[in-house]
Amino acid sequence: MTTLPSFNEVLKLILFGRLSLEIRVGRNWFTLRDEDLEMAGLLLVRPDWKTGRSDRPGLMPVIQHIESQVTGFRVEGHAPAIDNLSDVYDGLRERLAPSKLFCREDRQWKLTAFKSPPKKY
After folding, report:
1. Structure pTM?
2. Is residue 47 part of a domain?
3. Cys-Cys with 41: which of 46, 64, 96, 108 at CB 3.0–4.6 Å?
4. Residue 117 within any structural domain of the chain
5. What is the spatial distance between Cα 54 and Cα 39, in angstroms, rounded to a whole number?
6. Spatial CB neighbours of 100, under 8 Å, sequence gap ≥ 6
7. Backbone phi, psi, residue 33, to 5°
8. Cα–Cα distances in Å, from 47 out to 39, 79, 94, 107?
9. Domain containing 68: what range?
10. Is residue 116 in some structural domain?
């Protein structure tokens, strides 16, 4: 029997999970992993979301799946059946904020996971 992860487990994954970025079939993907859960999805670059004085584009994460190796739970789609989904997306947007994932290199913006370390308390 699979067990739905709690909101707190998903939030813990977002705050403390190891972040990796990769390109799959020409699209940016993020993956967050911890000892129990994995969340992966698209990371859409939005040049039309520039804010303030910076020309840094915006980012829109779109969850594609959440799974647990421990319980066998797996859900796919951008609106997984988990509690407080809007809060999950709020936390994800904070962790994957453009100011944390873009760095300037040769007068261009480059995505990097190194500026978005897990939170430490």
Report:
1. 0.85
2. yes
3. 64
4. no
5. 30
6. 115, 116
7. -135, 145
8. 25, 24, 18, 15
9. 7-111
10. no
In 52-116, which residue ranges form alpha helices assigned H by DSSP? 85-95, 98-101
For residue range 45-89, list pLDDT tens digits in order. 887 777 666 788 889 999 999 999 888 889 998 888 888 999 999
Query: Does residue 121 belong to any structural domain of this protein?
Result: no
Report the greatest alpha carbon distance in the chain: 52
How many structural domains is the chain composed of?
1
Structural contact between residues 66 and 79, judged by C-beta atoms closer than 8 angstroms: no
- State how far the Cα of 43 lies from the Cα of 84, in Å rounded to an integer: 21
Q: Residue 120 and residue 16: Cα distance in Å, rounded?
A: 8
68 close to 59: Cβ distance less than 8 angstroms: no
pLDDT tens string 85-111: 999 999 999 999 998 888 888 888 888
Q: Which residues of 12-33 are buried (b: 16+ CB within 10 A; e: fewer)?
A: bbbbbbebebeeeeeebbbbbe
Amino acid at site 21:
L
Task: Determine contact, residues 97/59, Cβ cutoff 8 Å.
Answer: yes
